[in-house]
Structures are given as structure tokens and as C-alpha cells.
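FAQ: What does a ligand-bound record look like?

Like this one, built around zinc ion:
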Amino acid sequence: MASAFGTACDRCGRSLHRRDLEAHLHVCPDCRHHWRLGAAARLRTLLDDGSWREHDAELVSTDPLSFNDRRAYADRLTDAMAVTGLRDAAIAATGAIGGVAVEVVAMDHRFLGGTLGMVLGEKVVRASDRARAARRPLLLVCASSGARIMEGALSLMQMAKIGVALGQLDRDGIPHLALLTDPTTGGVVSACAMGADLILAEPEAQIGFAPPATIRQTIGRPLPDGFQRSEYLLDHGLIDLVVDRRELRDVLGRLLGLITDSATAPDPRPAQPTASDADKRPTE
Ligand SMILES: [Zn+2]
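The answer part, i.e. the structure of the complex:
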């Protein structure tokens, strides 16, 4: 039960004052349960001095299909903006971790489930292009339930668009890191996460392309304990590290220090056109 002063741990029930929760980066000091973090809180916990320069904050969805199911998509967007203070499901920023400059896109699950629509896709592509231009690593902090169905095929296209941009990043030898947080599911798993050079995850995060119920029905068998959790993926070689949030900044700083010395040296090869050069379609 949350209040203005504190909350109780979802798992062990311990009462935590809001100040203590923030001091522990929203991790329960007793049972290590990791609360979900919004994009701004995520950047404050990860980046040196908690500071960053935001990019593309003005991008908003145009509701291209005038989509309406039980509620109008336009109304859902308005509500999500009011709840989060964001204009879509991610913050794109330039900052530093352990003194290494990085381009970051941090997703926010509170904004329509962190779903991948035109704005999030465009923010990832532009961040990737900035990483290529400046020859600095790209870190994608994933927290998403997958495609934004209210944008139909335009949402699904974002996976291909991101794939092209990250492929160019890979060809230029610029590191792409993914940090998977609870939950990272659907198209974001394939588009943003599994092709990364280094894949880190927070403890017990749900990570998987298809929902467990769908897989269970398809294979007609019960799923193993811990299926689609970070530790299960680590045991099966799908990710590289599971890291407690309170150690993430140090671990990422060390990793970035190790991999950037050679990767960020000037590239002797001629520059190639960026993904956004080929796709200047406005997003707002
Ligand atoms: Zn707890």
C-alpha cells in the first residue's frame, strides 16, 4: 500500500519510508525486490551526477489511425502524459557513466506499457545515429510490453527501422548495450535487446517475446520454474549478466571503460548515410 510517506514491499511486506526507498534506488533492502522505475528516475540512478541532456523531447504520436477501442487513443495519450510528465514512453539523452559519454534511451513502462510506437522507434534510431556520429556507445534501457497496437502497422515497422539503425551501428563498430528491466517483452526484445553486444538485466525481470500462457498452450506442457526471468535467461546463455540495481552504475562504468577505448577511436572508414537520412518522415 503506497502513501505520500512510504510504501510496503510487494513481496515481503516490509514498510519502507519513501526516503529510504529512494536511498536504496527502489530496491527492498530485505528481499531485494526491484520496483519498476520511470525513465527519469532510471537516468538519475544510472548517469554520473544524475545529469543528462535530453533529445527529441518534443516528439509526440500523431494518432495516425484515429484509433478507438474502449477509449480513444488520443485520450489514452493525454492521460499517460499527465501521469508521467512525458510526451511518450521514453527519454533519449546524452550523459556519462563512469566518465564515459553514452547515448541512452530509457523506456518508461508507465506510459502505455512502454509500448513501441512511432515516437519510441524514432528516438531509438536518432540516438543510434548520434552514437555513430560521435563514436560513443549506445545504451538502451528496456521496459516495454511490446508493440503499440493503436498505431497498427506503423508500430510494427519500428522493429525493422530500429534493426537497420542498429545494424549500421554494428558495422561501424560502435558498442550497443541493452539493460533489460521488468518487463521487457514483445517486439522490444527482438528489436532493441537481443542483438546487443552486451545484455544486462536486473534481477527477476520478466524477459521474453511471447507471453508464457501462449507458449504453454502452443507446446502443451507446463513451463519450467523461473521461465522468462533474468536468472533463467542467464543460465541458458541468452544474456550476459544479472546485476543488482544498486551496483549497475559501477558495473556499467567498468564495462564501458573496457570496451570504449578502441571502439570510440576515430574510424578510418568513410562515413555512410544514417538511417534517419533515409527516413525523414516527421513524427509529429
Ligand atoms: Zn521486500
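Follow-up question: can I read anything off the structure? Yes, for example: The beta strands are 6-8, 15-17, 53-55, 90-97, 100-107, 138-144, 176-185, 198-201, 207-208, 241-242.
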